[in-house]
Amino acid sequence: MGVAYSSLLSLSPCTTTIHITGSSLFPCTSKANPERVINSIFNHTNNICLANLQKPSKKFGSFSRFSQNSTCLGLKIVPLKCCGKVREMETQERILQKPLIDFHGIDEELVQKMVYDALVWSSLHGLVVGDKSVQRSGKVPGVGLVHAPFALLPMAFPESHWNLACEVAPIFNELIDRVSLDGKFLQDALSRTKKVDAFTSGLLDIHSKMLEINKKEEIRLGLHRSDYMLDEQTKLLLQIELNTISASFPGLGCRVSELHRVYRVSCATEFTVVKSNIGTCTPEAGSLLNYHGEHIGLDPRRIPGNTSVDKFAEALAKAWTEYNRPRALVMVVVQPEERNMYDQHWLCAALKDRYPFNMQSKIDKEGEILPDGTLLVGGQEISVVYFRAGYAPTDYPSEAEWRARLLMEQSSAVKCPSISYHLAGTKKIQQELAKPNMLERFLENKEDISKLQKCFAGLWSLEDSDIIKKAIERPELFVMKPQREGGGNNFYGDDVRTNLVRLQKEGTQEDAAYILMQRIFPAVSPTFLVREGICHKDHAISELGVYGAYLRNKEKVIVNEQCGYLMRTKVSSSNEGGVAAGFAVLDSIYLS
């Protein structure tokens, strides 16, 4: 087996180039924290009661901050973007979560020592990204490295909700697979969107061509991530979105878990995560809490092990095995300029270390399909195509990229994701699946259906005039989402009202490009955020992503499991949550 790591890929019977350009890494939602009392809740029945919702209130942050001039070993601990002052934040004591440690009494010198140790550890253990101030940092490995933004301490998360997120991961995996097989459902559900969204239209055109030739994906591989926030008012774990393409940070997410608490695994080939029995592994010397946990009252064993990068590598390797051509390559399609390349390299390194193959750094050659469906790139057969790009319009700057994507779909190579898996992860499909009785179309087990429905936030089409009226009246309770991945695309607050009113006045079909989602309000916690060597203290909220792997060959399910997690933490006043965009940091969870 081999890995082909491609950023400029030419794939057509003649000459077609897929040139993957830059884009944001991933989305996050939800701004905290309007105070509200909800009579029932937003739920999968998509009912909303506005009469019992109170207006947002504002007050100052209620925990102390270090002086902006405090230094130790050349480090600063400062308020985030506060210019030495306590910044006014939207928060209230009712939803301020009890912190893991006493932020009033924590010793400043201890924090500075922990920050220093964490920065050293990150540099030595590959918790790094490309430095945006260095021109070539996104193109040449090893040039312009800086530590990835991270939380100094893990974020508290209820163990019962952690167990639930792990439990539903295989059910969501199975759901995506079954939805992907229902071509008519995908085409019908996205038919209005296709008329006003050129990117979605391009994806649907490829999908339609596969339906026309009756193309069957006998080997289907999905590497997913389902993102959640824990709603403080209802205590429900609500799904933000389900990512079916380019689920990022399996590599660096593991590094942060190791930073906070390194796990020693007894067998190199066994990566099973025991959800509840968190005492099965012992912390290794070198982890942050192993050194400092006693001083701050935290037990490193309360941080679950994180094996997402190894599980993803294992699933890719098993897909290669099912393809059953020993000389074939696994090809990773990436953007040509990618500051997050080290997250991708961690995955390729896991493949290389655990499985017998030769790794190639790049392939910039022509591709073709043989009469039997074999995909060749530069004369080498490709068994698995793993997309870490191709999820945004900017990844297709010309028709050449679309022809390349079509060529890959027409081939017999295993696609991760296939075009149908890709479409199954769109916002519109998420909204359609949340409709009453829709899950019954794809799943038979009533208990499984019930578990998934409890995770659904309120989701609505913009064809619903009643919900549009309510969203215009109370826009702070909604998020307006287009069919996009990568973050920075959503509308919040007054922008929701402005755009809904504009769409009503214009009377076009542009409303089909969006959905409305209930805004989730998680609890706020004080925390330390470390970015570019500086530690900021602020109120923050977190988003849990749970990875899932699914591999099927015809009727045989080979892999269907939860395989690690990603915790991202951002300041509570921020709408967006992209790590690369500067809004959020990587984190781990502390089971409470």
From TrEMBL:
Transferase found in the keyword field: no
- Put simply, this protein is called Glutathione synthetase
EC no. given is 6.3.2.3
Show the GO MF annotations.
Answer: ATP binding; glutathione binding; glutathione synthase activity; metal ion binding
The record describes its quaternary structure and partners as: Homodimer.
Q: For this protein, what does the record note about how its cofactor is bound?
A: Binds 1 Mg(2+) ion per subunit.
**Pfam families in the record, alphabetically?**
GSH_synth_ATP, GSH_synthase
Requisite cofactors: Mg(2+)
Give the main EC class.
ligase
- Domain (Glutathione synthase substrate-binding): give its ranges: 329-424
UniProtKB keywords: ATP-binding, Glutathione biosynthesis, Ligase, Magnesium, Metal-binding, Nucleotide-binding
Annotated TM spans: none
Name the reaction it catalyses: gamma-L-glutamyl-L-cysteine + glycine + ATP = glutathione + ADP + phosphate + H(+)
Organism this protein belongs to:
Populus tomentosa (Chinese white poplar)
Family to which the UniProt record says this protein belongs: Belongs to the eukaryotic GSH synthase family.
Q: Pathway membership of this protein?
A: Sulfur metabolism; glutathione biosynthesis; glutathione from L-cysteine and L-glutamate: step 2/2
Tell me which GO cellular component terms the UniProt record holds.
cytosol
Highest taxon of the lineage: Eukaryota
